[in-house]
Here is the input.
Amino acid sequence: MDNATFRYSVLLMEGLKIPPQSNHLAFIFLLIAYIFIMIFNIGILIQITIEKSLHEPMYILFCQLPLNDVMGATLIIPRMLKDILTDPSERYITHMECFTQAFFQHLYGTNAHTILIVMAFDRYVAICNPLRYTSIMTNRMVVKLSAGAWGVSFVMVGILIGLTARLSQCRSVIQNHMCDNPSLFKLSCENVMINNIYGLTFTVVLLTSSMGSVLITYLRIAMICIKSKNKATNSKAIKTCSTHLTVYLIMLISGFVPVILHRFPENPEGRKLSAVLFYIIPCSLNPLIYGLQSKVIRQKIFKCSTKINSM
Here is the structure.
């Protein structure tokens, strides 16, 4: 099988080890989750696009989040749905498809951090420098911040996957439920020290920048709120910041659980399941948290729901 696999540039995906009697139940659960994610995230994007009152920096920057969620879910869940209904011995994937999936899988995770860093900066300017907010958060600045969030992620992930693409391969089985960088460089029998060093540096820089910037931002905001005696301003600050912080913590916890479970190789299926939930939980909750927090979006959603029910 190995010779044929290498000859036709095809790899075998191990996938999730689901009991045959539970295949259809798992398929239905993932399908419902995917439909939910697509409807709500695309709905939020459309709502912000057509509603002029939402053409503000905060909501324009937030658009990056559902866009990233749609990308991540679309590149992972449909492939998993296909694999669930496919015999484990026939879960083949081409090298190109596998590297593409790995690239966008890491791009999704990295974007989740960079986008939330940019959104934290927006909240910092709005609360700590309210009089200068409109002059700082101009349309040009919003475009720069958005492009920077995606550009930094693209370059960092491009180097990560590029280092793995240069390696020759001596194995043909992806021992995971999806393609990612560690699964790909484990196919090689070459020295992967450079990959490990860059991967570790990548992770440390990303998490340090993300957690550090969010922590500093919220400490500054907390100090401003403590010094301020304007209850209305403090209430608004708490409301908008709690939304961003909730989304950030959900993303952080969902991302840390699979990393922690990597330390327990005796439970590979638990690690795989937690990695799947990383694409389901944040992608499902983000539009609900931000959508329900915004009065305008909430009213539009209820109005659309009323029209659908009446029809």
About this structure: Strands lie at 10-13, 92-94, 173-174. The longest helix spans residues 193-227. Confidence is low (pLDDT under 50) at residues 1-8.
